[in-house]
C-alpha cells in the first residue's frame, strides 16, 4: 500500500514504533506547519533531542516541551506567521494573547516535570568541591 497518501498518524500507527521526536513536536503544535521541518529539526537539536529518534515520554518530554515553547516564542516575535496558519483571530492582539496563554500553559507543564524530577531526600551536603 502506498504510504505517501496516508495521514502521518496512520503511518505511525502502522509501524507501531511510536512518534519520532519531530512528529511529537508537530503533534504538540496541533500539526500546524508554522515552519519547515528543517527549522523544526534545528530547534529540536537546540533542545538536546534527536529529531528522528523515537520519542520516549519519560526521557524526552521536558526537552520536547521546551522545543515547543521555543517555537511558540518565535511566533510571538512574528505574529503574522502565526496568523497565516491560525486564521480565527481577528486582530494581532488576540493572536498574541492566545500565544501568551499557550506559553504559560507549557511553562507550567515544564515546571511540573521539573518538580517531579527532584527527589525528596533527608541528605544534605555540608561541603561542596
| β-strand number | 0
Q: Average pLDDT, to the nearest integer? A: 84
Question: pLDDT below 50 for ≥5 consecutive residues: which ranges?
Answer: none
| Coarse structural class | mainly alpha
Write down the Rg. 18 Å
Beta-strand residue fraction:
under 5%
Helices, by number, come to 6
What is the molecular shape? globular
Reported for the largest beta sheet, the result is: none
> How far apart are the termini?
61 Å
Order of helices and strands: HHHHHH
Helix content class: 55-70%
Structure explained in plain terms:
The chain is 62% helix and 0% strand. It is an all-alpha fold and 129 residues long. Helix 2 (21-28) crosses helix 4 and helix 3 crosses helix 4. The longest helix is centred in the last third of the chain and has 26 residues, at 92-117. The protein is globular.
What are the salient characteristics of this protein?
single chain; 129 residues; mainly alpha; 6 helices; globular
Brief rundown of the structure:
This protein is mainly α.
List the helices and strands and how they pair.
Blueprint: H1 8-15, H2 21-28, H3 37-46, H4 57-77, H5 79-85, H6 92-117
Amino acid at each position: 500500500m502506498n504510504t505517501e497518501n496516508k495521514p502521518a498518524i496512520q503511518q505511525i500507527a502502522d509501524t507501531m514504533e511510536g512518534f519520532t521526536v519531530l512528529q511529537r513536536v508537530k503533534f504538540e503544535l496541533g500539526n500546524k506547519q508554522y515552519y519547515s521541518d528543517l527549522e523544526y529539526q534545528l530547534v529540536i537539536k537546540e533542545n538536546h533531542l534527536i529529531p528522528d529518534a523515537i520519542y520516549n515520554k519519560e526521557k524526552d518530554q521536558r526537552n520536547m516541551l521546551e522545543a515547543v515553547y521555543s517555537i511558540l516564542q518565535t511566533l510571538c516575535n512574528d505574529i503574522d506567521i502565526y496568523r497565516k496558519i491560525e486564521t480565527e483571530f481577528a486582530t494581532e492582539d488576540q493572536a498574541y494573547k492566545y500565544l501568551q496563554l499557550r506559553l504559560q500553559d507549557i511553562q507550567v507543564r515544564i515546571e511540573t516535570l521539573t518538580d517531579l524530577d527532584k527527589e525528596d531526600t533527608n541528605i544534605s551536603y555540608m561541603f561542596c568541591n
